[in-house]
Amino acid sequence: MSSHTGIPRSTESALAAAAEDHALVSVPAADRKSGYQLALSPVSVATALVVFAIAGFTVVLAGFAVGLTVGVLVAAFALFLGRSLGRMAFETGMSSTLTSRFFGFGFVGSALGSIVFAFMILGFLAVEAALLYQGTLLMFDLPDSWPIRILVYGLMTLAWITLAVFGLKFALRASGVLTAVTLLVTVYMIVHIYVIQGADPTEVFRYGGVVPGGVWPRFEAAVGVMGATAGTIALVTTDFARYCRTRRDVTILAAAGPLTQNVLMTVLGSLVVIGGMPEVVDYLMAHNTDLGPEAAAAAGSTYVMQNTGAFFVVFAGWAGFITIYAAQAKAQAINAYSGSLSLVNLVDSLTGRKPGRAVMVVVGNIVALVMIAAGILEKFTDYLAYLGSMTLGICGVMIADYYLVRRARYDRSTHRVERWNWAGVITLVLSAAVGIALMATDVFSLGFLVSFALTLVVYPVLRRVLPEGTGTSFVSDQEAAEEAV
Asked: Per its record, what are the GO molecular function terms (predicted)?
């Protein structure tokens, strides 16, 4: 029997279910997966162009030894966060923002976390689209005009919406192949630089960075660039931890993204960026006769963060150009997917309406386009640090509530969800404000770490002063989260 759309009801129902992907319900046992299967999602995000840029820029600033050391430390921190938050999502079977209703913020209070996480993850969606756009201009020698912007960004946006709207299964199927392609072309670039061109890899390992002073200034600069992403990869991991079958799967999932993003990509990114910079400078001089050696070197340095795709285009031509789109296709699908989950919770918690996740995918991509128009690429490092204070604040409040206050005990049948958890809301606002103020005034460039530490101290104290039910009411089980059928 066909419906009024002309599509068989069984097919229409399957498409609708795929699009929603348990956005407002607990994932049923039948849909749970192994950690190895789920690990493809954070790995997809961790091999995106923006991560390549962050890794390369970290080493440019701090040098290889300090950059890799910081990468290992940040990976360990992100693993701790992802495993801690992932266990909560595993217990509830819900996304990170829905889980924050149960631990830390309450039903309406979780909207605050949704806003922060949505802006962070949609910021990555915007930045990565902007990097692709710059690579496209370079490949085809196109002018940066409004007709070109509308055409390229329009096509990319349609692609991200199509990829994200049908949820986890399609993204996972595509991730393995596209991640392999990305890594293979990156390896080809390394072979080209060090085998064909004859560059000396030991120069990369000895590279000391451009930040003046001793080890601490370089260490601080590296953590300032890379450390703020720990909360983001942890929250992305949490969105997929709801699909885990066991706690062991949570650990496998939590390790995949940080190790790829902060260790593997630091090594690959530095080998390509540091070793390949001379050839990029030569390329710029050959294609722009007005540039002298110094001007070309300065332009090449800006490519690390603002036109990362140029390295792929210069070294691998069409193969590199296709690769940057392949790399971004799977990462952008996950970014748009996680962003839509946050927006679904935002609308539901504030209005009581239950929007379709597919609609929120479209809304999220529109927000990303606005960010691009506002020039997010040029301000990305500041954006990362300030929002890092907020995302790490969210992580800290949830961890403090679940592990320090509730002692890791959760019983769905007796757990009550407040409309507002004022202790969590106040802790997040206070800790994020302190961290941002420290960074904005140049008192301490790693203020986002202060934000995280403050939440672990302040929240348990405030929870004693403002116990459950203080200044708020409780929502029904049906409001807190629908049961999956």
From this structure: cytosine transmembrane transporter activity
pLDDT beneath 70, residues of the chain: 1-26, 166-174, 289-291, 296, 299-301, 305, 477-485
Q: According to CATH, what is the number of the domain 37-478?
A: 1.10.4160.10
Nearest to 125 by CA among 329, 263, 386, 304: 329
CA dihedral 283, 287, 289, 295 (to 10 degrees): -50
Distance, CA of 366 to CA of 360 (rounded, Å) = 10
Whether residue 426 contacts residue 109, with contact meaning beta carbons closer than 8 Å, is answered with no
**Is 104 within 8 Å of 395 (Cβ atoms)?**
no
Question: What single letter denotes the amino acid at residue 197?
Answer: Q
- Give the start-to-end residue ranges of the domains of the chain: 37-478
pLDDT in tens, 37-92: 888 878 888 888 888 888 888 998 999 999 999 999 999 999 999 999 999 988 88
Q: Return all residues near 44 (Cβ < 8 A) that are at least 6 apart.
A: 171, 175, 178, 179, 330, 331, 333, 334
* pLDDT for the residue numbered 235: 82
Calculate the dihedral angle through the C-alpha atoms of 10, 242, 330, 13, rounding to the nearest 10 degrees: 10
Report residue 14 as tokens. Answer: 């399957």
Q: Which two tokens stand for residue 404?
A: 């320090």
Contacts of 452 (CB under 8 A, 6+ apart): 231, 392, 393, 395, 396, 431
For residue 173 the two structure tokens come to: 């199927």
The pair of three-digit structure tokens given for residue 446, joined into one six-digit string: 């790693």
